[in-house]
Design goal:
Blueprint lengths: L11 H15 L5 E5 L6 E7 L2 E8 L1 E3 L7 E3 L1 H15 L3 E4 L5 H11 L3 E5 L4 H5 L9 H16 L4 E4 L2 H11 L5 E2 L20 E5 L8 H9 L8 E5 L5 H10 L6 E5 L3 H10 L2 E4 L8 H8 L4 E4 L4 H4 L6 E4 L4 H12 L3 H14 L5 H12 L13 H7 L1
Parallel strand pairs: 1-3, 6-7, 7-8, 8-9, 10-11, 10-13, 11-12, 13-14, 14-15
Antiparallel strand pairs: 2-3, 4-5
Helix pairs in contact: 1-14, 2-3, 7-12
């Protein structure tokens, strides 16, 4: 598996690769990860991730200065490294999880050697440009070039996947590819603990990278528009380049005592944060799936999310939460109020609906589907979304 981001990085793509790799190890497969080194130390060694031990090839990397933590392997030598690793390991299949650097090198060299390539797309060039220093007037041409490169590399794969149908449609539209499989990142819902205890306080939770496309500023502004009697508190879990700006915004709005920034936390602390929360908020406009939203649903939380990209696949308006127009502070505040003022029976109904909807994203289904792709077997796309009517029928 090749990835440009892998733990200790904290983001959806890194978590997907980690969980998929660990699940495959537990099923008896030998898994090698190729990823940038997380520090100056580079080389090949055994690492334990998500409770499973795998071989990780850490490539020499440099810090990408416009980003607060991202490190990247050197493009100029990636083909040489990819060829060396493939010749040493001689894998049955290569799974590229980024077509930028590491996945590009592995895909090109695997194709030369007749090794099956499976590719999963987790990124949109539009998001990557935010962390570049190119002038705005050049970005249109850069985007067209980037999508062309995406098509070039993904075309080397026997099968291309992405987490949701909407993300697959978006990828096909911008690259000209066809037959992209929507396969959920998957989640082990049993790891999370829903709470149906009567609420004694109103806790709003956000989990994710603290960056511009997440539109956390919209959430903070919405907090200030909530009725005072709710005395709602907002917890932001995650780190990123916008943390200081958002702290200043909370201070300017007089909300500093009601907004807490937890930074990066352990898995146990994260699960506890979900269990304690009343509602999960995801104002982002760039989610190809949103593992954090899936974790919130597995924790039995109602979700208020932007009606953008893949989030409507997870949040069914009026059933397990509400959707709002991206960037609309007033509408977000109104939808949060709907949840926080909901009667206990209505709140529990939304919580139960989240638990039902998340069943379609079982990690074992994801693992089995990728195993079939790795073997070159035809797959029936797994159901990645349960419609509200179906959920009620199954209940």
């Amino acid at each position: 598996m090749g990835a440009d981001t892998f733990p200790p990085n904290v983001n959806g793509a890194a978590r997907f690769v980690e969980r998929l790799a660990a699940g495959l190890v537990r099923r008896g497969h030998t898994v090698h990860i190729v990823a940038p080194a997380a520090s100056r130390k580079h080389g090949t060694w055994q690492e334990t991730h998500d409770g499973a031990t795998m071989t990780v090839h850490r490539l020499f990397s440099l810090r990408w200065l416009p980003h607060d933590w991202l490190r990247f392997a050197l493009p100029i030598v990636i083909q040489r490294h990819a060829a060396r690793i493939l010749d040493e390991v001689q894998p049955d299949v290569v799974h590229s999880n980024s077509h930028l650097i590491v996945g590009r090198g592995l895909s090109v060299q695997a194709a030369k050697r007749g090794i099956r390539v499976i590719a999963t797309n987790h990124i949109m060039p539009e998001n990557m440009i935010e962390f570049t220093v190119v002038p705005k007037w050049t970005r249109g041409a850069l985007l067209r070039w980037a999508w062309g490169q995406t098509n070039k590399i993904l075309s080397l794969a026997e099968s291309v996947t992405t987490p949701t149908r909407r993300a697959a449609d978006f990828l096909e539209k911008n690259t000209g590819l066809s037959g992209v499989h929507p396969i959920s990142c998957g989640i082990d819902a049993g790891l999370y603990t829903p709470s149906f205890e009567p609420r004694t306080e109103n806790r709003i939770l956000f989990v994710g990278r603290v960056t511009g496309e997440k539109q956390i500023d919209v959430l903070i502004r919405a907090l200030g528009r909530l009725p005072q009697h709710l005395d709602a508190r907002l917890t932001i879990v995650g780190g990123g380049d916008q943390k200081r700006n958002l702290e200043l915004l909370a201070e300017q709005l007089g909300l500093a005592d009601r907004v807490s920034f937890s930074g990066y936390v352990t898995e146990e602390e994260l699960r506890e944060s979900y269990t304690r929360a009343t509602v999960f908020a995801m104002p982002s406009i760039a989610e190809l799936q949103s593992i954090a939203t899936m974790e919130a649903m597995a924790s039995g939380l109602p979700v208020v999310a932007a009606d953008a990209m893949a989030l409507p696949h997870l949040v069914h308006d009026g059933d397990n939460g509400y959707l709002f127009t991206p960037g609309d502070v007033e509408e977000l505040a109104s939808r949060l109020t709907d949840v926080l003022e909901a009667a206990p029976e209505r709140l529990n109904a939304m919580k139960n609906e989240s638990l039902r909807l998340i069943q379609a994203h079982d990690i074992n289904r994801t693992l089995s589907t990728f195993e079939s792709l790795y073997r070159g077997q035809p797959v029936t796309e797994p159901v990645s979304e349960i419609h509200p009517e179906q959920a009620r029928d199954e209940a």
